[in-house]
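QA checklist item 7 of 12: single-chain prediction sanity check.
[x] sequence parsed
[x] length recorded as 378
[x] structure emitted
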Amino acid sequence: MRLSAIIAFVGVTLLGLSAEPTIRWATPVDVGPGGYARAHRLNDGRVMLAYCGGTCGWMRMSEDMGVTWSKARRLVDHDILKEGDAAYTNFVGNIDFAQLPANHAAHPNRIVVSFNYRCRNMAKRPLSIHEMHSDDNGATWSAPRLLFTANTTEGVYEPFVHVAGSGTLEIYTADESEPTLEKHNQRIAKHVSTDGGDTWGAAQTVCSSMSSATGWSGRDGMPAVIEWRGHTYLAIESRGDSRHLHPRVLTDGTREVPLAEDVPANMVGGSPYIAATENYLLLCWQQHPGSDKRGSGRCVVVAAAPKAEVPASSGSVAGLFRGKSTPPLFCGPSERGSMWNALCPLEGDDFLLVTARSYADATGKVRQRVFVTRASCH
């Protein structure tokens, strides 16, 4: 055995630490106009991409792990209520999806999509969460169905679709409209379906927070969930005891600071997303100076936690994510940068990072384009 290998082995054995994770990036692929994109590998091996563009929801498919993509296909129209909305006052704001396993008792291979439906005038129509599904691998889709409506002054956002290990479907949301919440606060809620999406339960509160040190509302938001080795990991953005949003992970309900080196107190670290490859847990978030209200120069950051370091009994990931890495995407001060990021595990420790690059065109209007970057963790 080489000396370097012996030293590494001793370090892991005595300290419980492995080498610093490193991420290798391929060249980003410009998929096209759009924002708030989510990608998942389907049971048939294809990768499906869902995203918002203009006022509608769109989808694309890739048969080569994200290298090339099919033409954009409209998934959700802005006028789902069939009001003849020629003024485009309604639009699809956030979108996510998941697929049931091939052995699901009720609906094998069903793809379930959830999205946030918005009206530019909240007093006219409250924000709402809808669900739709496909039983033929995305060829055709059911009509959207209403799951939850907020009130006329507070909103509901950012649905995340999760298939629990039991086959139960869960849709998590960031909800401002719960009457018991403090003003300007937000809770993470979830809807549950035990029959493959045929019926859904009422919203259940998962978490919300207030800072005892500052009195600020935590504004828990942007939920993303995985299960691994019997533990549930819910990634959220939360103010906690800081003025700005930072990534946090609830491990079986226990709130933890997941980063070995937390986001600096004067920086915003929002929109976290958590995923698992063969040997690593991955966490990404968007980061920019807290003094910049526009969020100019936002960069997406990815960190990894070796699975071998996670205690089997507690499942705690506190301080385990490190090896911060930024993909080769331009995020200079003249642009708003990269935002609304997501991760899509592939095979082994390969994964896709999905993000939206926001920039001003020649007329000064802000545009967004979806980029997909393949990467591997070592």
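[x] summary fact logged: The longest strand covers residues 366-377.
[ ] second reviewer sign-off
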